[in-house]
Design brief:
alpha+beta, three-stranded antiparallel β-sheet, 4 helices, 7 strands
C-alpha cells in the first residue's frame, strides 16, 4: 500500500506479462468499479463473434483495434461497439499501456494482450485460449477482495 489509505500497489500479470508495470499505484475504489465492468455477464461476449470466425486470436485482436483507426475500413464498425464489448482490463491509468480483449473464436474464447509500452513489445499480440468461467471467478474474487478494503 502506498502513502494514502485509498491507494494500493496493484501488480497484475496476464499471459506472463506484467500489465501494470508502468503504473502500479491504483485508486482501489476506481479499479474495483472498472473491474466490475469486466465480469463476463456485464456484456455480451458473443455479440460480434461472427466477425471473428476462421481468424486467429491475433488477427481478431488486430481487427478489433482497427475499429478505432480512422484510416481503417473497419473504423467505427458496428457503431463503435466492438472494441468496448470485447475489451477487458481497461482499468484507468494502471493499464493504459495495453490493449486486452476477450475474443470468442470457433467455440473457444481467447484472451489477448498487446503492449503500447515498452517499445520492444509494441505490435506484438500475445494470446491464449482461456476458460471464461475461471476468468470470471478470478475477477470476482479480485473485486470482492478489493471491495473489502475500501
Amino acid at each position: 500500500m502506498s502513502g494514502s489509505s485509498e491507494l494500493y500497489e496493484l501488480d497484475i500479470w496476464l499471459l506472463d506479462h506484467h500489465i501494470t508495470s508502468i503504473d502500479n499505484v491504483a485508486y482501489l475504489k476506481s479499479v474495483v468499479y472498472q473491474a466490475e465492468g469486466d465480469v463476463v455477464g456485464a456484456h455480451d461476449l458473443y455479440k460480434f463473434s461472427k466477425y471473428f470466425q476462421n481468424m486467429s486470436a491475433k488477427e481478431a485482436h488486430k481487427l478489433i483495434l482497427s475499429t478505432r483507426d480512422p484510416e481503417s475500413e473497419f473504423y467505427d464498425f458496428e457503431n463503435d461497439e466492438v472494441y468496448p464489448n470485447q475489451q477487458v482490463l481497461n482499468w484507468g491509468p494502471n493499464t493504459d499501456n495495453i490493449a486486452c480483449f476477450l475474443i470468442p473464436i470457433d467455440g473457444s474464447v481467447y484472451i489477448t494482450v498487446e503492449h503500447y509500452y515498452p517499445p520492444t513489445e509494441i505490435g506484438t499480440v500475445f494470446s491464449k485460449q482461456i476458460d471464461v468461467a475461471y476468468f470470471d471467478s478470478v475477477l470476482k474474487e479480485f473485486i470482492e477482495c478489493g471491495a473489502s478494503k475500501i
